[in-house]
Design brief:
The chain has 278 residues and is an alpha/beta fold. 40% of the residues lie in helices and 18% in strands. It has two domains: 62 residues; 186 residues, Vaccinia Virus protein VP39 (Rossmann fold, 3-Layer(aba) Sandwich). The chain has twelve helices and nine strands. Strands 5-4-3-6-7-9-8 form a seven-stranded mixed β-sheet, sandwiched between helices. Strands 1-2 form a two-stranded antiparallel sheet. Helix 2 packs antiparallel against helix 4. Bound molecules: glutamine.
């Protein structure tokens, strides 16, 4: 590529395809980077293969590729991701939202009414709270996180999507009790043992605070349920994302903490992924 002062996209795509194959990194990661640098959509990239990269775009491309080749997740490199049809800013203080989590939003939306009060615990980048508030603007939505850096990111995202959400920097529940109709959380649920087996893209870059939970990954579900009394009424429903092997443990925990009904729902891969508790 160095021999061509302004290489066309067709040449670059060819090189990126080779890099992807030889390094075992998905081609889609390279395409996301190239689209970011050219500020275009994926379809435009393939329709206009003769457009060229100027020198500053080339420099940026090389810098991004070097980070990708050091296993940095592509969404931290470009500083954004997409969730439930919207663009969100992300940075290493927040977990990169996973596609499975869109299923949590899908599960919640048909079960809430516009007048309700909702709490999103451990909001991270804010994707769950914002997707729900944007779909039903009359809802009252509160969101919490322990990390002030994560909350800054969530607040920016809320502003970008014109969502009026009250954020609290706190451990799980807001400091002053109010009752919620719906309590949602995708808390950390990976046990310390499972964490060490995760790929380097996750272990070396994503916040451990957002991933690891003690008690075989059950720590935060237990704390959320057992501390919920001042924040719920008799009809309050909890929606959790869970690890695919945690359904039996969640069922047991819910019964132990005084709940009567636990429904387990699957994600698009057919794995147990969500628990609805009341
Ligand atoms: N609620 C955020 C998400 O689902 C953050 C989750 C977390 O940090 N465990 O992406």
């Amino acid at each position: 590529m160095a021999e061509h002062p302004n290489p066309p996209v067709s040449d670059i795509l060819r090189r990126l395809e080779q890099e992807s194959q030889s390094r075992g990194i998905p081609l889609s990661d390279y395409v996301i980077i190239l689209c970011e640098i050219l500020d275009c959509r994926r379809t435009e990239l393939y329709l206009d293969r003769n457009q060229t990269l100027n020198p500053s775009q080339q420099t940026r491309l090389e810098a991004f590729l070097s980070r990708l080749h050091h296993h940095e997740p592509v969404h931290y490199i470009i500083g954004k991701t997409w969730f439930y049809g919207r663009e969100f800013l992300v940075n290493p203080a927040v977990l990169i939202p996973r596609p499975e989590t869109e299923g949590l939003v899908e599960l919640v939306l048909p079960r809430i009414r516009p007048s309700m009060r909702i709490l999103d615990i451990g909001t991270g980048s804010g994707v769950i709270a914002i997707s729900i508030k944007a779909a039903l603007p009359d809802l009252t939505v509160d969101a919490t996180d322990l990390s002030s850096e994560a909350l800054s990111c969530a607040q920016l995202n809320a502003r970008n999507h014109h969502c009026d959400i009250t954020f609290y920097e706190t451990d799980l529940y807001p400091p002053i009790p109010v009752t919620y109709d719906t309590i949602i959380s995708n808390p950390p649920y990976i046990s310390p043992g499972d964490y060490s087996a995760l790929p380097p893209q996750i272990r070396d870059f994503e916040p451990t605070l957002a991933l690891i939970a003690r008690e075989q990954g059950m720590q935060f579900y237990r704390q959320i349920l057992s501390r919920s009394q001042p924040y719920r009424h008799s009809q309050t429903t909890f929606f959790f994302e869970i690890g695919s092997s945690q359904a039996p443990m969640i069922g047991k925990l819910a019964l132990e903490t005084g709940f009567h009904q636990v429904e387990i729902k699957k994600d698009l891969n057919g794995l147990d992924r969500f628990a609805v508790i009341n």
